[in-house]
Amino acid sequence: MISRESIIIVSILLIAGYFLSLNQPPTARILENNLEITESTPVTTTVPQNTQITTVVENQEEVQPENNIIVTSTTTRKGTSTTQESSIVTTTTEETSTTLDTTSTTLVSKSNLFFVEIYYDTAGDDNNEEYIVIHNPNSEAVNLDGFSISDNSGSWSFPNTVINAQDYLVIARDAAGFSVLFNCQPDIDGFTRGLNNDGDQLSLSKDGQEKDFVAWEKGVADAYPDWGIKTGNGKVLKKTGSGNSASDWSEADPDPCGY
Q1: Domain residue limits at 85
Q2: What is the pTM of this model?
Q3: Of 28, 76, 70, 33, the residue nearest 50 (C-alpha)
Q4: Of 9, 44, 77, 146, which shows the fewest CB atoms inside 10 Å?
Q5: Helix, strand or coil, per DSSP, at residue 50
């Protein structure tokens, strides 16, 4: 026979088990404030090479530097759905280049003087009438200190002289003979290098660095076969081109007073 105390204990245990079962949460689904929470699916975007990618996810930005295209991806959670918004911004980089056209302009450094006229086979006495002319193409005057003119056998240095910007300098062997023949005065006299009628060459240099060169009748002992230019008696070699070869020189009448 079951005692009264046993019945009371069993009843208490049954009642306690019932109330414990009422406190267990449901396992079938998860609800919060009538909204169903779903996980967003990662979105993979393929972007060509040479692009710049900026990804913004929940106010965080990650930058991968490349070149011209920016792809922005934003994920927003709204209630029961997930929205993927993407925008592509294309930026254009303008490249600017500067081309120096040297086909029609002769570029010269400061102090880069050159010969423009050579009177080597005079109509009279070469020792008294020979002259040469040099030109300063620069926008500033040039002090001729350190300049010299040389041939195959020696060198002549300029006296203390300045040649003005865009100007010419007439250099004679003898001022008296020059003035009798041309009825004007040279800028400088006393030039000591004799100009051979059967071939010679001249170099214009500054501190040993050659600035210009000219030869005629192939130079002394035919040392410069490409320079076969020559003049008749009483004519001058005159530079008519912008280069530095025999084809840039022509025969002309002497006119030293015209400079």
Answers
A1: 47-94
A2: 0.58
A3: 70
A4: 44
A5: coil
